[in-house]
Amino acid sequence: MNLMYRQILSKVKSSKKIKAILMFTVVLPIAAIVFGSILAKCFIIPITKKEPKQEKETVVSANTNNHIYNIYYFQSGVFTSKANAEMLKKVLKEVNVDCAVVKDKDIYRVIAGISDNNDFEDLKNKFKNLKYDYVVKEIPLNLAENSDDAELIEYIKSVKSIIECQIKLSYINNYNSDTDNLLAEINKENEILKELSIKIMNSDLDKKTIDYFKATNDIIIQNIDKYLIFMKKNQKESVLENLANEIFSIKSLYDFIGQNNI
User: How far apart are CA 216 and CA 73, in angstroms?
Assistant: First the structure.
């Protein structure tokens, strides 16, 4: 009788262990995933509705004017709080979407892609399948209208050339001859950029403009250098962040030039 009792007790304990193992290895992870999904859809993603509204998607035809340059970015959210932007970035990371959080004046944009030809079909399809909001925005740099200063125009053109090369480089999966050509072009334009920046900082522009330019130029140069490092390490999220910082820095300079009639 005692033997039978011990056998029954042993089976009960074994059953409890199995249940405990199942609870920790199967049930709890599934519950966590379900809870995380509900949290993301009900609390985190809707934060965008309480923040600045996402603008409608911008669709712009190509412009043949040599002085007009367009950069497009795929925006998954816009916030007044950096913490909320980082939260959305984390949510998207969990569904294998790399994002960058970039400050644009008083708001924080969550950027999932950057292009010079508005080509975001893969991202659009992915976001539609996930039922997440997005907008594609354009940054037009109409240099002919925005400045009479030839060196500032050349500076912005040079930055744009570097960004174009960086975008193309970002889409190359394997090292090839195009990689060398693009890297050579970036280095060439980077040298031009540095020469132009010295000329601009020693020009007759007013102190306010010089100071603003210097601060912007420092950010751009730093991000160009970091970009090359992160590309070699294949750190896609950091590459995207560097590109976004460059783009919104040059946008900031461009806006400053226009607002101050330089």
Answer: 20
Per the model's pLDDT, the better-predicted residue between 141 and 244 turns out to be 244
User: CB of 82 within 8 A of CB of 109?
Assistant: no
| Total count of residues recorded for the chain | 262
| Contact of 57 with 128, CB cutoff 8 Å | no
pLDDT at res. 208: 93
Please report, rounded to a whole number, the percentage of residues in the chain having pLDDT higher than 70: 68
pLDDT digits 0-9 by tens, 241-250: 999 999 999 9
